[in-house]
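Quick one: structure for this chain?
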Amino acid sequence: MQRTACCLKLAAGLFVLCFSGCVAQALVGGRTVEPGDYEAAMSDPWVRPLVRSDEPFGIVASASVFAVKFVVVEPKQAEAQARLRTTPWVGVSADEAHEYLGFSPAFDPRSEKLVLLRCAQVVVHGSTQPMGRVTVEWNSGKVHVVSSAFASTYVPVQHVAIVAVLPRLPSEVFVDMATIVP
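Got it. Here's what it folds into:
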């Protein structure tokens, strides 16, 4: 049986299971991540995994990749999500960002853009709160939003809108998830 690429990375003493494409089944730390969980999460309309056939594991190692400043939208999450209903990103003005966040994010309008981005986070079963950590990376116009969490499942998924500071408007946005299986 052919499996798509997956890798294990050591990050802060933990093994992180990263997937590219659909996976058959993975066993980490004595627990099984079921293929149905991954496929259900990846079928979410907000999720668009970074899958590159020319790169092993879908991860691009380059000096042009850098972390992006971002803030999760709090007071106006529903309105922000409504703007992202049909697109993974929307450029926003400083006034719009202030409206969504309740404060003005620090950025240089001459060299940076404010962008509303999709994020998909794993939610603890029996809770409504997303868990884990979100990172946003920029690579030559491509944005990769990744939610990682200590979990043995990818579902349920919660949609979250974030405002990011980018060097320019993105050419593509990838929204992905990774689980850290304890």
